[in-house]
Amino acid sequence: MTKLSRALGAAMLCLGLLLSGSVMASQDPAAPAKDSQKTSTINGKVSAVTDAALTIVDSAKAEHTVAVTSETKVTKSGKDATLADVKANDAVTVEARKGEDGTWTALKISVS
Fold it and tell me: Which end of the chain is more exposed for a tag (fewer CB within 10 A), N or C?
C-alpha cells in the first residue's frame, strides 16, 4: 500500500506541475498588468477646464494638466456629475494614470 500511495502522490504532483505550466504558457507575456501602470492622486484647485483636459494648481503652486476621456468618472459632492459641472477654482481630487508617453489621464475626478 505504501508503494501505491507514493506512486499516486508522485503522479498527482506531476499532473499538477504540468497543468500549472500550461496555464502559465497560455498567458500573454506582452499584455501589461493593470497594477503595473502608475497611478497618482493630485489635490488642488482647477485653473482651467476644457472638453479634453483639466489643469490643476496644487498647494505648492505646481500646475498639473491631465487628459480627460469618456472613461473618466466625475463626482461632485459625492454624486455623479459631468465634466461640464467642473468649474475654475473648484477644489478637486484627481486620480490619474501615467501613460507610456509620460502624459497623465484622469481616471476619477472628485469635486468637493
Answer: N
CA 50 – CA 59 distance, rounded (Å):
22
- pLDDT (tens digit, 9 = 90+) per residue, 6-52? 766 666 665 565 556 544 444 555 555 454 468 999 999 999 999 99
Q: Which domain holds residue 66?
A: 37-111
Q: List beta partners, residue 94.
A: 42, 109
CA gap 32, 18 in Å, rounded: 25
- In the block, residue with C-alpha cell 509620460: 102
pLDDT digits (tens, 9 = 90+) for 82-105: 999 999 999 999 999 999 999 999
Q: Which of 80, 104, 76, 78 is nearest to 91 (CA)?
A: 76
Q: How many domains does the chain have?
A: 1
